Model the fold of this input.
Amino acid sequence: MSELLMKLMEINGPSGYEHNVRAFIIKEIKECVDEVFVDKMGNLIAHKRGKGRRIMVAAHMDEIGLMVKKIEDNGLIRFSTIGGIEPISLIAQKVDIITGKGDVSGVISLRDLAGDELIEELPEINDLYIDTGLRKNELAIVGVKVGDYVVPTHKPTFLGNKKIIAGKAMDDRTGCYVLIKIIQNLKKQKLPLDVFFVFTVQEEIGLYGAQTSLYKIDPEWGIAVDTTNFNDPDLKVECGVGHGPILIAKDSEMIANKCLNDTLQEIARVKKIPIQVKVEEFGTTDASKIMMHKGGMPAAILAIPVSNIHTTISISHMDDIHNCILILEELLKNPPKSCIF
Done:
């Protein structure tokens, strides 16, 4: 079960560079649905035909990353962030620069401090650079140039608790994994819905893939499967890793459809699956674009709790991921009727 997720997490796919993730997913699902196609934006859409209402179930393929912005004369590389990343989390991280001639390894460093100088403020991106050990002319020879993608090199691994997985790109390869497993599990089952599983692009920089895919499939309601953070290692707040998937009732851009949320909670109650509810002040997901399509539609977010979110290595619990699959499978087999206007 976890081997597929680990393979997904290993693939490099920052926003705008999702093609390798997309190719991997196509191989996993092409025999399990009625149609697979890629739109002009790069979204991967898998259609499982049914006679009921059209539903969009979305997870984004892209991950956070960096891009080469400037190469100094001494060979140090300045970079821009792709998605929301706290600069302090990047210090001393090993990265690969993806070039047309192959990957070039480097380490992200902070400017040298003089003597006993202390850092009095959190570093900004302009305070950081990538050191490859190469001079500017040598970087040109190996193919490094402005606009190249930069990705972390952390391989996924299990921690002391073998149900807890850590690695890069957990946001949102866990969501992609959930969709893949649902597609595979329901391969031979007829559903009372016309389902479009959409693996979106460029979510991290503006939800662009979700927005454009909606014009093609024109759903009547939708669910986004994503990740969300929790902030208390002692689990003194309601939402924590290993305590079940999270329904996000509100984020910075939307309020989820209450009827859909109630339905998902009832499924969890009947199936005796732990589930959590969260009110978020920051961030949003593809669901905010789904909700605003045309005249608007019901939309909800089912998220997997992740610690160290939007860093080069995050942590999640396989039980939460598995339970997310169980809840969504039941929703697709027995969808609500009263929530859809």
